[in-house]
Specification:
Largest sheet: 4 strands, mixed
Helix content: 40-55%
Structural class: alpha/beta
Radius of gyration: 17 Å
CATH superfamily: Spore Coat Polysaccharide Biosynthesis Protein SpsA, Chain A
Strand content: 5-15%
Low-confidence stretches: none
CATH topology: Spore Coat Polysaccharide Biosynthesis Protein SpsA, Chain A
CATH architecture: Alpha-Beta Complex
Number of domains: 1
Distance between the termini: 35 Å
Mean pLDDT: 92
Length: 233
């Protein structure tokens, strides 16, 4: 993260974003040190609490600061920070409540930008399953480039979602269950040695937690079993 954070932050359009908050989840590199030189807010977890826990910290901080829109962008420079304007536009126009960046507009483009073959097909398959179960029509459901309206974050009980990598998919399930309008916009993708990526083995675990979240959604929806994940406080 320390190798890509500065490039990521410097390319975020400041005429769209009022404040940038960097969450350092107990990293052992210079991420927090670098962030503090870039005129951004920095929150550091003293120990690693997990991918989902880092997002929870960031969202709660943004809500406390009075944010109307919140954008999640990973600091690994994999998605183009300049596209933040387009990510938030559907929310500003009251077309969507929750927008994802779609990194897989075509197989040729995704593969050409370095997405592994197995990851491309797994992404497509899982996205179609989620669309079917949740009644959505997303081009991709697995992007970490996201924008939310304040109402989404105030309504969805995201603190009940996982502190780990299951968070992203559980959040989509929650947002769909509570009836929010979810859409996506095309974004460019960069696979670089310094960018984050998961192994095939980790990918299998990710698929399992995605399917588990969808299964719980179905059980909750048909009243066979209730889950706190889908219950407002």
């Amino acid at each position: 993260m320390e190798k890509t954070l500065e490039r990521t932050i410097r390319e975020i359009p400041r005429d769209v974003i009022d404040k940038i908050i960097v969450i350092d989840d107990g990293s052992r590199d210079r991420t927090a040190e670098i962030a503090r030189t870039l005129n951004v807010a920095v929150i550091v977890h003293e120990s690693n609490r997990g991918y989902g826990a880092a997002q929870k910290t960031g969202y709660k901080a943004a809500l406390r600061d009075g944010a109307d829109l919140v954008v999640l962008i990973h600091g690994d420079y994999q998605c183009d920070p300049r596209l933040v304007s387009y990510l938030v536009a559907p929310i500003k126009l009251d077309v969507c409540d929750f927008v994802l960046g779609n990194r897989v507009r075509s197989r040729k483009e995704a593969r050409g930008n370095g997405m592994p073959t197995w990851k491309y097909y797994a992404n497509r398959l899982l996205t179609e399953v989620e669309n079917l179960v949740l009644g959505l029509n997303l081009g991709e459901a697995h992007s970490g480039y996201r924008a939310y309206s304040r109402r989404v974050l105030e309504t969805v009980p995201f603190e009940k979602a996982s502190d780990r990598y299951a968070f992203d998919q559980e959040f989509i399930v929650q947002a769909a269950y509570f009836g929010f309008r979810i859409g996506d916009v095309p974004v460019t993708l960069r696979y670089m040695p310094e960018a984050s990526s998961i192994s095939f083995r980790t990918g299998l675990g990710y698929a399992r937690i995605t399917l588990n979240a969808l299964f719980r959604y179905l059980l909750h929806r048909i009243n066979l079993k209730k889950f706190s994940l889908l219950t407002k406080p």
